[in-house]
Amino acid sequence: MEDKKTELPLGGIIPEGGTAHDYSTGGWRKLRPIVDKDRCTNCLICWVMCPDSAVIVEDGKMVGFDLEHCKGCGICAVECPDKVKAITMEEEG
Amino acid sequence: MAITMTKGQTGLTGNAAIAVAMKQINPDVCAAYPITPSTTVIEDFSSYVADGKVTTELITVESEHSAMSACIGASAAGARVMTATSAQGLALMWEMLYIASGMRLPIILTNVNRALSAPINIHCDHSDSMGARDSGWIQIYSETVQEGYDNLIQAVRIAEDERVLLPAMVCLDGFITSHAIENIALLEDEDVKKFVGEYRAQNSLLDTDKPSTYGAMTLPDVYINFKHQQSQAIARAKEVVIEVGKEFGKKFGRTYALFDAYRLEDAEAAIVILNSAAGTTKVAVDELRKQGKLVGALRPRLFRPFPFKEIADALSHVKAIAVLDRADSMSGFGGPVFNEVRSALYDADKRPKVMSRIYGLGGRDYKVKDALGVFNELQKVLETGKVETLQKYITI
Predict the structure, then answer these.
(1) Which residues of chain A are within 8 Å of residue B229 when distances are taken between CB atoms?
(2) pLDDT tops 70 at residue B5
(3) How far does CA A82 lie from the centroid of its chain?
(4) In chain A, how many domains are there?
């Protein structure tokens, strides 16, 4: 019997780039990052450290999180400088 | 005894002949780690690299795990890749063997058959390649130096065929074939080059204009479908082996099939046996034929995929069969070739009696008298219609 999925690329190769964007990892999240923009200095350390490129920056300013891809690891909250501490992690409701 | 030269023939050991085939194929990459008895394959080949006879990138790695890993990386990059190993070396490649086949990379490996430890032993048996029989690699077994050389050249075409795209392993007996000198006919470099053609990979990991991911994670929604694809591909390899064997015969005069049937047409008793020991068995067959006994032999050449239908058809008229394995499955139920041949015969209208004999482990000699002993046992089966001892070790 021919398999319906035999047109899949051979050997599990993904024959194009950038496909990680299509995979929503936000559903894995238990803790959600919350930013207090009154405290944030836009140092962008969170943007540098985020392993999922889920910190959104516009015109050189941190403006929030891409919750489709943020896994809630909390690295941003830990790396946010001690004097600022603008990011906190909250339980997903 | 005088050493005579035969026109058009060259005296070479099995390993030297494999190295010549590799030189003529001129793969893009070869990554290997030396291990007895396959060492001289790469030793000879590295001389060809050093002397500029080939353009191959030779990668000397720190282990066989790394050798196969490097082969996989190079093959994913689109290169034609070859390596060689034996025994513990093949065992150390284990994890990567499955990755090579799962990623559909047509890597060519020469396995010079040697016993697996323990106890440590450097001599011939088939426990190494038999252990890898479910790894998704095509396995072709060679009786002689000539066949090892011819098989390696054909393996390139088989593995790279777009209906197949799977790695292939060419097996020959350690020391018995790998280190014994045989007069063989070599092909012209140009003929080999034309026969194997140029390899054009469908994808290349290094093609930055067309980026791709190899070895990605798959979840329950597609994993089984990839395995199904792979299973269909290795089943298709059988037809390709037949085609390539015929084409090789047409061009160079030596035709190869799925198996080698020797005086089998009217045989009542037969031995099924792989590799060099088939030659010894044929001598016993000839001796018994002189006495009027209807005996024959079948030597499977292609073992993966297993040509179950064709082998069953060739054996179904035989009344008593002994399958001789140079490896034990340690299942308490005979050797691997026995199990597959016996299973293949299950659907035969008149099922032959089939028994398992394990021989020659760790290089123990298998002599004509051993084959005659087995035929003697088969004669008793013919007379009584019963198999008294289903499985046992011989040559002990």
Answers:
(1) 3, 6, 8, 10
(2) no
(3) 22
(4) 1
- In-domain check, residue A5: no
The pLDDT of residue A4 is above 70: no
User: Which fold does the domain B10-252 belong to in CATH?
Assistant: Rossmann fold (3.40.50)
Question: Which backbone phi and psi does B153 adopt, to 5 degrees?
Answer: -65, -40
8 A C-beta contact, residue B177 and residue B276: yes
Q: Where are the domains of chain B?
A: 10-252, 260-393
From chain B, which residues contact A within 8 Å (Cβ)?
Answer: 102-105, 165, 202-203, 210-216, 218, 222, 225-226, 228-230, 232
Q: Would you call A15 an interface residue with chain B, using a CB distance cutoff of 8 Å?
A: yes
Q: Do A3 and B218 touch (CB under 8 A)?
A: no
The C-alpha atoms of residue A33 and residue A77 are separated, in whole angstroms, by: 7
- % residues pLDDT > 70 (chain A): 94
Q: Which residue segment(s) compose the domain that A34 sits in? A: 23-91
Of A5, A6, A14, the CB nearest to B212: A14
Q: What confidence tens digit (pLDDT) does each residue in A14-65 have?
A: 988 888 889 899 999 999 999 999 999 999 999 999 999 999 999 999 999 9
Q: Do A15 and B210 touch (CB under 8 A)?
A: yes
Report if residue A35 sits inside a domain.
yes
Residue A50 within any structural domain of the chain: yes
Could you report the per-residue pLDDT of B224-250, keeping only the tens digit for each? 999 999 999 999 999 999 999 999 999
Say which CATH number the domain at A54 has: 3.30.70.20
CATH class of the structural domain B260-393: alpha beta
A16 within a domain of the structure (yes/no): no
Written as one letter, the residue type at B278 is: A
What pLDDT digit, counting tens, does each position of B380-393 carry?
999 999 999 999 99
> Environment class of residue B28 by beta-carbon count within 10 Å: exposed (0-12), middle (13-18) or buried (19+)?
middle
A27 touching B, CB under 8 A? no
- Tell me the C-alpha distance between B27 and B45, whole Å: 11
Interface list for A 30-69 with B (CB within 8 A): none
What ipTM, to 2 d.p.?
Answer: 0.77
Torsion of CA B123, B124, B128, B130, to 10 degrees: -160
